[in-house]
Design goal:
single chain, alpha+beta, 8-stranded antiparallel barrel, 23 strands, about 15% helix, about 40% strand, globular
Length: about 475
């Protein structure tokens, strides 16, 4: 939600040490995305009165919808302008109250969170890094799941050497190897400094490309690879719960049939899953057998997602992550979750001066983005954020579009497509477009198994039944 708090005298949104953003140093626990003091905030009286009036009018609009008839008001697309107006007032009031009451929520812990007592609980960390001078990149993800397993992604390309992926792929399930850090399949991700520094490392075997588009029993060419990167932030944190613009949710919810059960599902989703992102730079080196050690400096995002994520509730999504030459960074996701929203657009922009803004509007539509399962070479989307208009075009690199299968109940397939971007027809950028499709019928990985940590290409330890469910 928009930050509606009154700025406190003598405080700034960013604290700079060494040219990069750092969270404020204080004796009280840090609250993510919050720049307020420990004293309660008091909004101006006129703002509170205006919010109260909007809330009253919104409630009257909701009552009017009920009077017009439950069936008519609950039909998809019915009374959309009135729904938008009612929801806008309610979300504005809720956002102001939430910011004053919670001041942005709890800070990240320095170790993985305890998983909730839910079969779909997770704690996921995801990093991307792209070289600005050549085609090198690294994508790494580890998501802790119940029963001692992890979802793991690992793809990289070293310019002039080739593409590499974890030998488990397109399967993504590996054993969870530590309670103190994120570790699995030879990949390790460690939290070094609060919202500022992380370490990503790997020591094991990777399969040399081309990237596989379907499961195969053949191991392929396995090569010993070792790398270590230190990631340091260049922006503050964007919280999807607290910083997203309310207008995107208003538009999405207004298109759906309304009922008490609908709003209960929306509330449940909002309370059980959290995500925040931050952009930064990874610096390190990669050692590949029979090749010289390569030093890399990469720009990319880190994403932290935790709570409960049931993949069977997601039908499709497209996510765009891009960083541009002028320092602008953007995230745009269009997602279909049939229980709540069939076309929700959400995301943000970090401006070159460090300011952040949630996306307010976009013309992106899942119906026009590989709805038939055929991913094209080029895409173009427009959106607004922070009062500015953005036109973004993407040209996908079809040689770098690796695939991962979802191994949990509610199976699906992820396409992680590397892309070159252009902002407003002028500014070059780098990043990816991620396409997800749910596929409950297909049997993708026969006798799905978990791989060992670093001891070569062998596969062992059956932990999942063949339909993708946990034993």
């Amino acid at each position: 939600m928009r930050d509606l708090r009154r700025r406190q005298p003598g405080r700034t949104r960013k604290q700079l040490r060494g040219g990069v953003w750092r969270p404020p140093e204080r004796s009280a626990p840090l609250r993510s995305g919050c720049s307020c003091s420990s004293a309660p905030l008091r909004a101006p009286r006129c703002t509170a009165l205006r919010c109260a009036m909007l809330a009253l009018l919104a409630l009257l609009a909701a009552a009017l919808l009920a009077l017009l008839g439950v069936r008519r008001a609950a039909a998809p697309g019915a009374w959309v302008p009135l729904k938008r107006w009612a929801l806008g007032g309610l979300l504005l009031l809720h956002g102001a109250w939430r910011q004053r009451a919670s001041c942005g929520g709890a800070a990240e812990p320095r170790r993985p969170r305890l998983l909730r007592p839910d079969p779909h609980a997770l704690d996921s960390v995801y990093f991307t890094g792209f070289a600005e001078t050549n085609k090198s990149f690294v994508i790494a993800r580890l998501a802790k799941r119940p029963n001692g397993i992890c979802e793991m992604w690992l793809f990289l390309r070293v310019d002039g050497v080739g593409e590499f992926e974890h030998p488990q792929h397109p399967n993504m399930m590996v054993n969870d190897e530590s309670e103190e850090i994120w570790s699995g399949g030879g990949l390790t991700i460690e939290y070094l400094e609060l919202q500022a520094r992380w370490k990503i490392s790997f020591d094991g075997f990777l399969r040399k490309g081309p990237y596989r588009q379907q499961w195969s029993e053949e191991e392929g060419e396995l090569v010993p690879v070792k790398f270590s990167f230190h990631w340091e932030n260049s922006t503050e944190v964007f919280s999807f719960s607290d910083d997203s613009h309310p207008s995107t949710f208003v538009r999405a919810f207004a298109q759906e049939p309304w009922s008490i059960e609908f709003f209960q599902r929306v509330k449940k989703q909002r309370e059980q899953h959290f995500r925040h992102e931050q952009w930064g730079q990874s610096v390190g080196e990669i050692e590949i057998e029979n090749h010289e050690k390569t030093k890399l400096s990469l720009q990319g995002v880190r994403s932290h997602s935790y709570g409960v994520r049931n993949w069977s509730e997601i039908y499709r999504y497209v996510m765009i992550l891009a960083r541009f030459e002028d320092g602008t960074a953007a995230h745009l996701t269009v997602i279909n979750m049939p229980a709540t929203t069939t076309n929700l657009t959400v995301g943000y922009v970090f401006f070159p001066d460090g300011k952040k803004a949630g996306i307010e509007w976009s013309n992106a539509s899942l119906a026009e983005m590989a709805d038939d399962g055929v991913i094209k070479d080029e895409y173009r989307v427009s959106f607004t954020a922070g009062g500015k208009h953005f036109d973004v075009s993407a040209r996908l690199d079809k040689q770098a579009c690796p695939v991962v299968y979802n191994g949990l109940t509610g199976r699906g397939v992820f396409h992680e497509c590397i892309a070159d971007f252009q902002l407003n027809g002028l500014t070059q950028g780098w990043g990816l477009a991620e396409f997800y499709y749910r596929d409950e019928a297909a049997q993708r990985v026969p006798n799905l198994q978990l791989g060992p940590s670093t001891e070569g290409p062998a596969i062992s330890s059956l932990h999942l039944v063949s339909n993708g469910s946990l034993l």
